[in-house]
Specification:
Elements: H1 4-16, H2 20-33, H3 38-53, H4 65-74, H5 84-103, H6 106-112
Length: 124
């Protein structure tokens, strides 16, 4: 997740698996953590909620009810850490579920066969 190129390849894989919303949510949370302007934080938190948390969203991520409750409380006064619990839950889901499938995929095997300089820092 640290390498932009590796994230892109992993995102392409998730898109093929119809679960791209997980990495998009994770990236949106990372972006929110870097924000310090309260108005921008509130706007970004609202967008993240509408795009990934709302049950009406086509890109809704799968979260348990406990985490949804925490988010709903946090949305009263959003901060850069509003979605921390949800982000961890989605990261864990990707780490345990999607990433192992990615490592065993033809897409990753092709990537692994590239010469070393081409894939420097390519871990997702």
């Amino acid at each position: 997740m640290k390498c932009p190129w590796g994230r892109k390849v992993f995102r392409d894989f998730l898109k093929c698996e119809y679960s791209e919303e997980n990495i998009l949510f994770w990236l949106a949370c990372e972006d929110l953590k870097n924000e310090s302007n309260p108005e921008v934080i509130e706007e970004k938190a609202r967008i993240i909620y509408e795009d990934y948390i709302s049950i009406l969203s086509p890109k809704e991520v799968s979260l348990d009810s406990r985490v949804r409750e925490i988010i709903n409380k946090n949305m009263v006064n959003p901060s850069p850490r509003t979605f921390d619990e949800a982000q961890l839950q989605i990261y864990t889901l990707m780490h345990r579920d999607s990433y192992p499938r990615f490592i065993n995929s033809p897409m990753y095997r092709k990537l692994a066969q590239l010469p070393s300089p081409s894939r420097k820092g390519s871990t997702a």
